[in-house]
Amino acid sequence: MILISPVGDLSDELVEAIGGEIKRVFGFATEIEPVLQDLSFALDQNRNQHHSTMILEQLAANTPAKAIKVIAIAQVDLFIPILTHVYGEAQLGGTACIVSTFRLNEGRSGMNISRKYIDRIVKEAIHELGHTFNLRHCPEDSCIMHYCRNEEDVDRKSDQLCRYCKVMLEDEITRSKK
Ligand SMILES: [Zn+2]
Ligand SMILES: [Zn+2]
């Protein structure tokens, strides 16, 4: 089971869309349970952004054992120190990942999201979860594991893994079941 952990009030349509795509792409059932509610421990006062790596550590530490992976859906602006902002971050081959609606929904709250923004956020959610299954960035620009620098790149890529990444994912899932 893969746990979806919303932070604050989010549109049901978005959460359900992410759950549906997790089932389709990774083949795992999902459950929804907020693991972290308060992200203030990760707030950088100078940048007025949240440090996503710190959130991932707390997320992984608080995830119930029944979940093989956890994805948090945040609404705050996320960063890692070497970049101005990130859409999300993941522990490569680990348990936890996070995606934020902030940039992908152009700063609006996560309650009111149109289809276009839902599609973007869902793609980046699947992308981050892919990293927890050990998938790296893919040079194929239509592949969901392609690294996107801006929202146009996200809109351009498909919602599918390329053939190569699909094989890598199947290998990883088989390995983890042994
Ligand atoms: Zn990535
Ligand atoms: Zn690929």
List the helices and strands and how they pair.
Elements lengths: L1 E5 L5 H15 L3 E3 L10 E2 L4 E3 H11 L6 E6 L3 E2 L8 E3 L5 E5 H4 L10 H18 L18 H6 L6 H15 L1
Parallel strand pairs: 1-2, 1-5, 4-6, 5-8
Antiparallel strand pairs: 3-4, 7-8
This protein binds zinc ion (ZN) (2 copies).
One zinc ion binds next to helix 4.
In words, what does this structure look like?
It is a single chain. This protein is an alpha/beta fold and 178 residues long. Helix content is 39%, strand content 16%. It has six helices and eight strands. The strands form two sheets. The protein has a five-stranded mixed sheet with strand order 2-1-5-8-7, with helices on both faces. A three-stranded mixed sheet has the order 3-4-6. A hairpin with a 4-residue loop joins β3 (43-44) and β4. α1 (12-26) crosses α4. The radius of gyration is 15 Å and the shape is globular. The relative contact order is 0.15. It binds zinc ion (2 copies). One zinc ion (ZN) is lined by residues 127, 131, 137, 147.
